[in-house]
Design a protein that fits this description.
Helix content: 25-40%
Number of helices: 11
Strand content: 15-25%
Order of helices and strands: HEHHEHHEEEEHHHEEEEEEHEEEEEEHH
Keywords: Iron, Metal-binding, Oxidoreductase
Protein name: Fe2OG dioxygenase domain-containing protein
Radius of gyration: 21 Å
Organism: Adiantum capillus-veneris
Pfam families: 2OG-FeII_Oxy (PF03171), DIOX_N (PF14226)
Structural class: alpha+beta
Strand order of the largest sheet: 1-2-12-9-14-7-6-3
GO molecular function, one term: oxidoreductase activity
Largest sheet: 8 strands, mixed
Length: 380
């Protein structure tokens, strides 16, 4: 690209996706206007990693199948408190090999470094199927500065292999093996966390997992563990754009690993201050999602989060999103620890809710109300 003497805006160019933008711009170029979010949503980049955010050591749970009595109680208490207050926590000493997490991140970087034309071979039928490099315009917000891959139902379907065979002439066994191994490890960790949270609420340990098994036994295994890889390229004007806007995830639970660098921010308990998540090489980030908030009758809170950008460094994360069966009827748990609380949400199926998230779930939370509150909340 020829040198320029002043910032240049490329709004008028026909740009297919973020990777095309990157191939034609330098750090002196103004980002396209559609990526500039409205002023009220522009992020603060001066935050330091917050010491207030909960980091929970799961080592006591790994010492034996059930951990020591005292150690287990401490972990259950810490997880439940964090899920109630933040809807977020980071776990360490979780048993997932760090080598595997870094191998998955490395495979992701290898893909996003490919030429745009090759990446586009992995595109699916919609934004949440295969490769998506064309940012959607979010109403009243702007376009998000990211590329992504979504692989659906990775534990039940050969989605990784099908994706790899479209992108690479001879497939990519390294990528597929990493997806499969990461999926199994994170799914097992998710089930353990759900059991501990149920215990912390005074519910049966299998309260949040038993319905999945019952539907599978009845021949209705329409549930999924979806793997999503997000790539946030360095941005010349990070104070004007967002990697992802403030949101909650519409599923049950999300487990996320981020490679080097900062970018993930969590909305504080006061509902107004943002907290930068510290990077930990072996840390796995857990989000309570909308379905779990509704299922727990609002006791556990879905974590509101966003991603800010970096001027000098690309950033990658990958996550496992636990998608309940579409037929699963979510009925709020009204009796916890032996005490009854009137339902705060009406019963709903996951299929009904996920169909509505295009209208509700992807709106920026406002005044403390999230998509699940708008969709299923019962007015007092």
């Amino acid at each position: 690209m020829a040198a320029v003497d002043a910032p240049v805006c490329v709004d008028e160019l026909s740009v297919r996706d973020i990777s095309v933008i990157l191939s034609g711009l330098s750090n002196d170029v103004v980002i396209p206007e559609r990526f500039m979010v409205k002023e009220a949503l522009r992020p603060s980049l001066s935050l330091l990693p917050s010491s207030d955010l909960p980091v929970i050591d799961l080592a006591p749970m790994l010492a034996s199948p059930h951990g020591s009595a005292g150690g287990r109680a401490d972990v259950v208490s810490a997880l439940t408190r964090a899920a109630k207050e933040w809807g977020f926590f980071q776990v360490v000493n979780h048993g997932v090999p760090i080598e595997l997490l870094e191998r998955m991140a490395s495979s992701g970087h290898d893909f996003f470094c490919l030429p745009t034309e090759q990446k586009e071979k992995g595109a699916g039928s919609n934004f949440l199927d295969g490769y998506a490099g064309k940012s959607r315009m979010v109403k009243d917000v702007g376009c998000m500065w990211l590329e992504g891959i979504t692989l659906r139902s990775i534990l039940a379907e050969p989605s990784a292999e099908q994706f790899a065979n479209r992108v690479w002439p001879s497939g990519n066994p390294t990528f597929c093996d990493a997806v499969s191994e990461v999926g199994r490890e994170l799914e097992a960790l998710k089930n353990s966390i759900l059991g501990l949270l149920a215990e912390g609420l005074g519910l049966p340990t299998d309260f949040f997992t038993r319905p999945f098994e019952e539907l599978k036994a009845a021949g209705q295994p329409n549930a999924g563990a979806d793997l999503r890889l997000n790539f946030y390229p360095a941005c010349a004007q990070p104070s004007l754009a967002l990697g992802t806007m403030a949101h909650t995830d519409p599923t049950l639970m999300t487990l996320l690993y981020q490679d080097t660098g900062y970018g993930l921010q969590i909305l504080g308990k006061d509902g107004s201050s943002w907290h930068l998540v510290d990077y930990k090489r072996d840390g796995i980030i857990i989000f309570v999602n909308d379905v779990l908030q509704g299922w727990s009758n609002g006791v556990l809170q879905a974590g509101i989060h966003r991603v800010v950008l970096n001027r000098d460094r690309h950033r990658l994360s990958f996550l496992l999103s636990s998608r309940p069966p579409s037929e699963l009827l979510i009925q709020p748990a009204c009796t916890m620890d032996g005490e009854y609380c009137p339902p705060r949400y009406r019963p709903f199926t996951f299929g009904e809710y996920i169909a509505a998230t295009s209208e509700y779930g992807h709106l920026p939370p406002e005044n403390g109300r999230k998509g699940i509150d708008i969709y299923a909340g019962i007015s007092s």
